[in-house]
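Write out the 3D structure for:
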Amino acid sequence: MKLNTVIAFGLSVIAAASAHAVDLVIATVNNGHMIEMQKHTADFEKANPGIKLKWVTLEEGVLRQRVTTDIATKGGQFDVMTIGMYETPIWAKRGWLDAIKPDATYDVNDLLPAIRDGLSYDGKLYAAPFYGESSMLMYRKDLTDKAGIKFPERPTWDQVRDAAAKINDPKEGVYGICLRGKPGWGDNMAFITTMVNSFGGQWFNMAWQPQLETKPWHDAVTFYVDLLQKYGPPGSSANSFNEILALFNEGKCGMWVDATIAASFITDPKQSKVADKVAFAQAPYSVTTKGANWLWAWALAIPKSTKHADAAQKFVNWATSKDYIDLIAKDKGWAAVPTGTRKSTYANPEFQKAAKFATAEKAAIDSANPNDSTLPKSPYVGVQFAAIPEFQAIGIAVGQQMSAALAGKISVDAALKASQLAAEREMTKGGYYKKK
């Protein structure tokens, strides 16, 4: 072999090796849309031959813990992280995230304004929404019709409780209502906070003092515990989104207030036994509709610690693009696409026709206002969370107390007292106010 040929051969081997040099490690949550995305790994790798995708799929609480630890310690374990509206502006402010750089076809202006704003900091997008959601009431219309119940567009919590009492039939394996009980700031506390908002409560007053022993918190949590203990499934204190989704799809829940994204699963006849019996209303309220339904997006972000920023940008652009939505529509049908992110999805007649939940979902997302989500004025941004670094620890501590109260281990009063003390400790430590 001639020297030039050997050199050329050697360079081609190096080029071939480097073409597969990037293993992109993606941390994501074990929700249906993310599981579906992983099935399309080959589509991305075919279009980007130099990149191999490696998935780390975790339960919601574990994901939050792992990515928070990794980014705070600059661990560099992940190249792409699935995070939400709580983490994005806080981490961007700390300089932990790369700004998203959309490619020419991405169309940032097509993103729903509420979702885009929640994932931005200082006017720049720092996480791209994979799917967005609010919360709403999903119910078995066959059961409510049989009981003579008609829900208005946005029912009250009293109307929901009365309906739960009428349709609750444990002997037949049907429970009046299913709600989150598993502890976590993004689990039971996402739901409970919206309930507290609607009862006229807030996390902190304008002096940043925790408000967990006020009347709205007491009334809301008492109502919640009573509702689930009487008309919910056994073991509710361990149930989160996926557990309740399985129960609902089996026909065991008469009603469910949770993420609007659930609608695409419970109306899918391939996975739901009650797909043709489901109807929708806006999330219930008590004394105010302010903050009655949450606003969230599971989004893809790129930590500063990645060594593969360009490859990560390519993946994020692909996974959150119009083309990806079209890919899922082609493969699974328009009712199965990730929703809550783009105006063009809701404007598509094929989506409107396939997704009977589309109107209610978009109305819920549009009505949520993170800048004005409580009846008394609050110093924080966020509907189902307060966008401050200390909230994660507070939400976890309070979530454990609420779950214990639901399980009957402690009283509501004791749970709220312990929650108030935990919140005061974190807020004084954070320098928000001095406890007198």
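The beta strands are 22-29, 51-58, 80-83, 97-98, 120-121, 124-125, 128-140, 255-259, 278-282, 295-303.
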